[in-house]
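Data deposition worksheet. Section B asks for the primary sequence of the deposited chain exactly as it was used as input, without tags or linkers unless they were present during the calculation. Section C holds the resulting structure in token form. Section D is free text for depositor observations; keep each observation to a single sentence. Incomplete worksheets are returned to the depositor.
Section A, Depositor: J.P.
Section B:
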Amino acid sequence: MEYIAVLIVAALTFGVCFLFDKGFEKFFRNKPQHKSGLSVRVNKRYAAFGAILFVLGLAAIFAGLSGTWLLLAGGVLILVIGICLFVYYVTFGIFYDADSFVLTTFGKKSATYSYRQIKSQQLYTVSGNTVIELHLTDGRNVSLQAGMIGVYPFLDIAFAGWCRQTGRKPEACSFYDPSNSCWFPPMED
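Section C:
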């Protein structure tokens, strides 16, 4: 009888997760770019580290409940960091097709941009990682790390779309050098 109860709880858990996933996709990932299968996503290490820190934070909180306030405070801090890493992994994404891209970030409504709205780019090196910052015509910036999944195919398609939409020839773009992480005009000082 106990096995049947465990199976029912497991089936309900998986069912709720499945329905939540389908509902999330229907309400928040319903644009054509989401369905193209092309995206730039944060590395899965963010989700893994977030889950590990979440579990460690919970363990520290439960251990700190017996009276050690430092362990309790540290557990809460680690738990919050784990949740933030996981939320960043789940919410950040660029979904694109040949004509436009959708930028999805935490706390902001998803915005659709055409490639002609990319104004310039700027390169940074942070802890040995290349960061490509795209500046858009509405004043928003998009920071792409070289370690993100799908970043280089996105930049190649974005450059091709940008040239097509702005009427430029790729050969005439002297700044274009993908081997040096340059796809768009550099930001003017």
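Section D:
The chain has a mean pLDDT of 76.
Strands lie at 39-40, 93-96, 100-105, 108-114, 118-126, 129-136, 141-145.
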